[in-house]
Amino acid sequence: MLAEANTMRPERARPADTLVSIEGLKMHFPVYKGVLRRKVGAVQAVDGLSFDIMRGETLGLVGESGCGKSTTGRAILGLYRPTAGKVHFGGEDVAAIEGERLRRLRPKMQMIFQDPQASLNPRMTVGSIVAEPLVEHQVAKAGERRARVRELLDQVGLNPDYVNRYPHEFSGGQRQRIGIARALALDPDFIVCDEPIAALDVSIQAQVVNLLQDLQHRLGLTYLFISHDLSMVRHIADRVAVMYLGKMVELADVDALFSKPKHPYTRALLSAVPVPDPKIEADRRRILLKGDLPDAANPPKGCRFCTRCPEAVAQCFDVEPEWRDLEGGRKVACHLAN
Amino acid sequence: MTDAAVAALPATASRPPRSQWRDVWNQFKTHRGALVGAAVFLIIVLLVFAGPFAWPYSAELIDIRARNQGPSLGHPLGTDQLGRDMLARVMAGGKVSLAVGITAMALAVTFGTTIGVLAGYFRRLDNILMRFTDLFLALPLLPLLLVMVMLFRERLASTFGPAMGIFLLIVVSIGLTAWMQTARVVRSAVLAVKQQEFVLAAKSIGTRERRIVLRHILPNVLSPIMVSATLGIATAIITESALSFLGLGFPPDFPTWGRLLYDAVDYLQQHPERVLWPGMAISLTVLSVNYVGDGLRDAMDPRIRGR
C-alpha cells in the first residue's frame, strides 16, 4: 500500500539522482521593537542557501550553535515558511505550497529531533506515538496498524511489547529509537536528522548512528544529518556542508573536506577536532578564532566571516564572495580559495 | 532485546492497547485524599437527591408552633423561624446549589478552556481574544449579573417555567462571568506546551491543527483546567448565594445553600447552628471536589502514574 503511494508521485524533469534541490533559501525572522511594534529588522537565520541532496546519500550539515542549521532543516520540511527561495522535492516546491498539498507530501519527508524527551508527547503511549502518522494519513486499518507499529519498534531494536508504555519509562537512547520509528512509519524517502545524537550519552550515540546507517542501507533512505559533532559527521556522511552565520561556506565530499578544507572557517572548525593519537595530537595546531559570532540581525558587510577570518584581505570586507564551484564537485564561498 | 521481542511476538501480536481509563482508575485508587473526597462527595449527592424521599418533612412545610427549635431527635438540625425542618431545607437547597455549581462550572470551564486554547495556539486570535477576556475581567460582575437577571428573568420564566427559567438564567450568567481566570491560565499553559518539540513533530507528520490541539495540547494542559474546575464549583455556589441574598436569584421560599446561609445570618446570635449547616455543606462539597480534582489530575498524568 505504501509502495503504491510511492509510485504515484509525479517526477519533474531534473537530474534523476537529485532528491531535494534547494535554491536561494532564505529564512528571516522579523524583529519588532517599540510601542508600536514596528518591524526594525530581521534575524537572518538562513540567508541564501543553494544545494542539492542526492538520492540515497547522507549530507552532513555542520556549523556552530546558532548558525542556522536547524532552521535550514525545518524550512526544507516546510515547517517554517521561508522568506524566499525554493525547495524542490517530489515534484513540488515545498516552500510555496501549504495546507492539504503540503500534507500530502509529508509522508515522504520526515524528521528526527534533537531532544528525544521533548519530541515525544508524555501523555501518549509509545504505540500511539508511533501510530500517529499512520492514523493521520489513514494508511492502515486498526489491526494492520498495530502490526505495523510492532514491526517498526522491532526494526529500531525495541521490544514490540513496549507499545503500552509511556515515554518517561525509557532511557534517552530508547526514546530516540521511538522517534526514529515514528519517522519511519510512513516509509519516507528523506529524513532530516536534527542533531539526533546531541542529547545522548556518548556510549549511546554510536548505537543510534549505527541504527541510522543500517536503516539507510535497508530502506534506501536519504538523510540530511545536522550536527556539530564533526567526528560523527565524518563517520556517517557522504558529503558535508559547512554553515556559518546563515550562509553555506563550503560543501564537499567528506574525505575531500576533511583532508583539504578550502574555506578558512572549515579549517578552523576542523582544527578543533581532537585526534585519538597522542603523537599527532601533541603537534596539532588549533586555529583559534578571535571574537564572537556576529549578530545575525546585523551581519557584517562583505564576507560574513571577515570579522574573524585569520586570512581576510581588503576585498573580503567589501565584496560578498559568491557560492562557486571548484573542481571535484566541491563548492566554496571564499575569495581566496582555489 | 530483539530476540526476546521476536519470541514474544506471536503470543501477543493481537493484544489491543491497554485501556488508559483503567490505568487512571488504578492510580486514582492510590490517592487516599481523592478516595475520601469522592466518597464524601457521593454521600452529599446521595443525601441531597435521594434524601428528601426518605425524610418525612418537606422543605416547605411550615409548622409555626415548632419554630426556632434546636437540634433534637425529631429535627436533627433544628427548625427555622417558621418551623420548617432544617435538614429537609438543607437537602432541598443542596439540590439546587449542586446543580447550579456543577453546571455553571462546566459552562465556565468549557468556555474558558476554548478561549484559552484558541488564544494560546492561534497567534492571530491571541490579541483579540485576550482583550475580550480583559474586557470581561474589567466589568463589575455583580452589577452585570443583576442587570442580566433583571432583563431576562421574566422572559425565561415564561418560556421554561419559573424554576427552570431562573435556573438557566443563573447558570448561564454565572458561567459567562466566571470563565476569564480559566482562559488566562489555560492560555499561558498552551503557550508553554506548543513550544515543545512534540508539537513540531506532530506538524512534521502532517497532523491537522485540530488534532494537534485535541491530542497534543489539551491533554498537556489538563492540570490547570482541573484546578480551575474544582475551584469553579465553589465560586459558582457562592455567587449563586450572593445573588439569592440580593433577592435576584431564586425566589425567597426556594431554598438553596446560599439562601439558607443568608437567612440564618439574622439569627446568628440566637441560633448560631443554623449558619453552620449550610456553611458546612458548602465547605464539605468544595473540599471533597478539590480532593477529587487533585486525585484526577495526578491520575491522568502518566509521569506520576507509575509511582
Task: Explain what this protein looks like in three dimensions.
The complex is a heterodimer of chains A (338) and B (307). With 338 residues, chain A is α/β, with parallel strands linked by helices. Helices cover 31% and strands 23% of the residues of chain A. The radius of gyration of chain A is 21 Å and the shape is globular. Residues 1-15 of chain A have low confidence and may be disordered. By secondary structure, chain B is mainly α. Chain B has 14 helices and no strands. Chain B has helices at 2-12, 20-30, 32-54, 86-121, 123-138, 141-160, 162-177, 180-194, 197-205, 209-217, 222-245, 257-265, 273-299, 302-305. Chain A binds chain B through residues 74, 77, 79, 102-103, 106-107, 110-111, 113-115, 118-125, 127-128, 132-133, 136-137, 143, 146-147, 150, 153-154, 157-161, 163-164, 166, 168-169, 179, 182, 186, and chain B through 1-2, 4-6, 8-9, 12-14, 16-18, 20, 196-198, 200-208, 211, 215-216, 219-220, 300-303, 305-306.
Number of strands of chain A: 12
Shape of chain B: globular
Residue-averaged pLDDT of chain B: 80
Report the end-to-end length of chain B measured between terminal Cα atoms: 25 Å
Terminal-residue CA separation of chain A = 50 Å
CATH topology assignment of chain B? MetI-like fold
Kindly report the oligomeric state of this protein: heterodimer
Question: Which descriptor suits the 3D outline of chain A?
Answer: globular
Strand-residue fraction of chain A? 15-25%
Helix content of chain B: over 70%
User: What's the CATH superfamily of chain B, by name?
Assistant: MetI-like
What's the story with the biggest beta sheet of chain A? Answer: 8 strands, mixed
Query: Mind telling me which CATH architecture of chain B this is?
Result: Orthogonal Bundle
Quick structural overview:
The complex is a heterodimer of chains A (338) and B (307). By secondary structure, chain A is α/β, with parallel strands linked by helices.
